């Protein structure tokens, strides 16, 4: 474990596809898949806080849909998003689908995911769960990664169509993808743009994560109201949600770069 310096390996299980690891590191618990990439990070003392910036940016969904009372999350990870929603949005019921029983085991054993009627975890393939679902959600968080990226079947046109189908009126898809491959980002944005008339993105850092926000509603987003809601929410959170709303960019499919055209300034 020298590569982790003073880090301590708490859990490791090898599956046919990857290695699931829980690593204790400087007051944090990290989920890794057998490499240096931190899939999720949770504070040992304050698990309701979001430590990774991309997870903070994903919470812009609650500024876009402040009335959300139910969410779906595809991909559990260490449960940092689940912890956050459970603590900060107590009226919100969560459905979470995770394909790996080892990830679910680690989340309960080491990351302290609560056992609650408000937080239901289903072991299943995300695409199959979404395709068969007759539930409608106010927010759908797509954050399902393998060791080397997002599974291909979670980036198909058919899958994105089903994600649009399960959104309630006024609902939003919040889709996390890696931002290091511009060509791949262009493909994802084009696929999403074919389904979601309202499509925005936030770039988190340089070459790290890009969060896409898609709505099937054609009504334009009132960005100033969204910012005001984010400023109000920021007072209750451990980070500035307004900062991330200011980073929203409107995706215009006619642009040559496909996904990086800025919206009007707020």
CATH architectural grouping: 3-Layer(aba) Sandwich
N-C termini distance? 47 Å
CATH homology superfamily: Vaccinia Virus protein VP39
Low-confidence stretches: 255-266
CATH class equals Alpha Beta
Largest beta-sheet characterization:
8 strands, mixed
Q: In angstroms, what is the radius of gyration? A: 18 Å
Tell how many strands the DSSP assignment holds.
12
* Tally of domains: 1
Count every helix, treating DSSP H or I runs of 4 or more residues as helices: 9
Structural class based on helices, strands and sheet pairing? alpha/beta
Looking at the structure, the CATH topology is Rossmann fold
The coarse overall form would be globular
Oligomer: single chain
Strand order of the largest sheet: 7-6-5-8-9-11-10-12
Helix content: 25-40%
| Strand residues, percent | 25-35%
| Helix and strand pattern | EEEEHHEHEHEHEHEHEEHHE
Could you please describe the fold and organization of this structure?
- This protein is α/β, with parallel strands linked by helices.
- It has one domain: 3-Layer(aba) Sandwich (Rossmann fold).
- 28% of the residues lie in helices and 28% in strands.
- The chain contains nine helices and twelve strands.
- It has helices spanning 53-58, 60-64, 80-88, 101-109, 126-132, 157-165, 182-193, 223-234, 241-245, and strands at 8-14, 19-25, 28-32, 38-43, 70-74, 93-98, 119-123, 137-142, 167-178, 198-204, 209-215, 249-250.
- Strands 7-6-5-8-9-11-10-12 form an eight-stranded mixed β-sheet, with helices on both faces. It has a four-stranded antiparallel β-sheet with strand order 1-2-3-4, covered by helices on one side.
- A hairpin with a 4-residue loop joins strand 10 and strand 11 (209-215).
- The chain is globular, with a radius of gyration of 18 Å.
- The model is unreliable at 255-266 (pLDDT under 50).
């Amino acid at each position: 474990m020298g590569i982790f310096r003073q880090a301590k390996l708490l859990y490791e299980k090898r599956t046919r596809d990857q290695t699931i690891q829980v690593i204790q590191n400087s007051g944090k618990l990290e989920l890794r898949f057998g490499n240096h990439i931190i899939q999720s990070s949770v504070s040992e003392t304050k698990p309701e806080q979001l430590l990774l910036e991309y997870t903070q940016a994903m919470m812009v969904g609650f500024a876009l849909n402040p009335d959300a009372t139910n969410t779906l999350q595809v991909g559990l990870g260490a449960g940092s998003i689940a912890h956050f929603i459970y603590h900060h949005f107590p009226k919100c019921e969560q459905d979470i689908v995770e394909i790996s029983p080892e990830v679910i085991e680690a989340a309960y054993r080491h990351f302290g995911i609560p056992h609650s009627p408000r937080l239901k975890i289903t072991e299943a393939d995300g695409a199959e769960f979404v395709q068969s679902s007759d539930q409608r959600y106010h927010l759908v968080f797509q954050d399902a990664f393998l060791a080397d990226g997002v599974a291909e079947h979670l980036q198909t046109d058919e899958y994105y169509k089903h994600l649009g189908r399960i959104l309630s009126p006024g609902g939003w898809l919040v889709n996390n993808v890696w931002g290091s491959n511009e060509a791949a980002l262009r493909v994802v944005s084009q696929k999403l743009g074919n389904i979601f008339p309202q499509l925005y993105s936030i770039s988190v850092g340089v070459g790290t994560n890009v969060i896409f926000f898609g709505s099937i509603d054609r009504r334009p987003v009132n960005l100033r109201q969204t910012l005001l809601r984010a400023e109000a929410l920021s007072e209750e959170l451990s980070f500035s949600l307004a900062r991330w709303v200011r980073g929203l960019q409107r995706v215009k499919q006619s642009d040559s770069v496909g996904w990086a055209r800025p919206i009007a300034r707020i």
